[in-house]
Amino acid sequence: MPEKLLPIIDFFLEHKILLSVVIIALVLMFRRLVLKQIRGDVAFVSEHQRKWMSRTKNGTFTLMVVVVFMLWQSEISEFALSVTAIAVAIVVASKEIILCFTGSIQRASARSFRIGDWIEVGSLCGEVIEHNLMATVIQEIDLHHGQYHFTGKTATLPNSMFFTYPVKNLNFMKRYVYHSFNITVKEFVNLYVIVPEIIEQIEGHCDEFIDVARRYNGVIEKHAGVDLPGPDPHVHITTTATGEQVVHIMLFCPTEMATHLEQLIREDFMQIYQETFGKNALREERNPRVSYM
Question: Residue 223's pLDDT is what?
Fold first, then answer.
């Protein structure tokens, strides 16, 4: 049997291009089978599955590169000697590729993020679903508009961006978030008299999760080594250049409840404002005095 295999082996060694195609095809088939087993029949891929899918892709890609390099080592060596004179031109032409590769090394050495983390790079925010030697793939999240849901868009970031933009790891925001919003009041009245009642209403909405929020806030402070604002709601009032009053509200709450809580607090504010300053508001029935932004 081994004697019958020798002619086949010699044939493939003489035809390296065909052997390379066969190797690549086998590795790709193996990767596809492994990925299929990892994914299974589930509709949504879990974070654990994404990690193993990314490891499989990166591992098979590395295996392909190593095997093909070893197969063509002699030819590559001869080619490298022949292009020594134009090495500078090659480096310049492949600058972006080199930056992507070194950016991947920088990410791995600094441990900036891992699969499943929420990150912000430049103007893009999202959850990391895959990363390799050249790029990082994220599912975009709408954070800049005070929302915390997926937009359905997938963004592929070249790793060279990590040298141009700071990478912000927002992973703790997956569970709890400091949610801030403003309410603008056009009519100049003493809003400080209703602040205690507003805080009481906010605390009532937060009763169901405040204990967990305090513990989670303590974990974040210990991990980050900084003194954070704390889990209790914060309300303060400022004025604009045009004389309008702005009520700033910040609360520490579960990320999936942030938008809903904001709507409840806005409703409470409108009701308290109406009850407290309603007499002045009735004078101008068709001219609303409160606007929200």
Answer: 73
